Amino acid sequence: MPTQDELKRLVAQAAVRHVLPNRILGVGTGSTVDLFIDALAAAGTPIAGAVSSSVRSAQRLQDKGIRMLDLNEVDDIPVYIDGADEIDPGFCMIKGGGAALTREKVVAAVARSFVCIADASKRVAVLGKFPLPVEVIPMARAHVARELARLGGTPKWREGVMTDNGNVILDVHGLSITDPVATETRINQIVGVVTNGLFAARRADVLLLGTPDGVQESFRVPR
Ligand code: 5RP
Predict the structure, then answer these.
(1) How many CB atoms lie within 10 A of CB 2?
(2) pLDDT, tens digit (0-9, with 9 covering 90-100), for 136-180
């Protein structure tokens, strides 16, 4: 039985086929994406440059000699490749385990196609077993925590973590997210929230799932 890390590597390698040569590439954050960056560099696929969702990925891309671009200088990202903490049958995701959710959401908003790369453990029927990350302005932390508790969740401050934007993360336990778009919208309305880790309004378009039987590729059915 392959390990989770082996499945991540498999799916990271498969994602290289989704990179459009000589075009700008959006690159997410996380251990699966780290493996993807390594696979991309090893394949030598030429790209016009990369827009990254974190300082961590930008550093790794630069170390591989890939040209980094500022999102403000880019108006078209044909493909964005990123991991997920959970993904449901409708391709809605929970993201932000690596605290990069806000920049991930921004790059995903610009991208035309979101390719999610995940090992099979990330596939769930209903989102919410993985605690939902919420990025919060530091002075609003206690207020936002109270509001999240009123919605039925149990928020826990991810102590010692500061996002690339200088904010803090609350991880919300105990949510069963049966309507991801509604929950994403509702949490974003809490004053002090920068964004939350539900990617439902802008969900994945393509899923590459690493399974013991190989990489399963599926495409979202348009709503
Ligand atoms: C980072 C993310 C990651 O995509 C998510 O946490 C999955 O990470 P990994 O590939 O390490 O399992 O959203 O903010």
Answers:
(1) 16
(2) 999 999 999 999 999 999 999 999 999 999 999 999 999 989 999
Q: Which residues line ligand 1 (CB under 6 A)?
A: 28-32, 82-85, 95-101, 104
Mutation choice for ligand 1 from 7, 9, 10, 85, CB with most ligand atoms inside 8 A: 85
The answer to whether 133 touches 196, Cβ cutoff 8 Å, is yes
pLDDT digits (tens, 9 = 90+) for 19-34: 999 999 999 999 999 9
CB 98 within 8 A of CB 53: no
pTM, full prediction: 0.97
Alpha-carbon gap, residue 126 to 23, rounded angstroms: 35
Largest alpha-carbon pair distance within the chain?
50
Number of the ligand 1 atom closest to the C-alpha atom of 8: 10
**72 exposure class (CB count in 10 Å sphere: 0-12, 13-18, 19+):** exposed
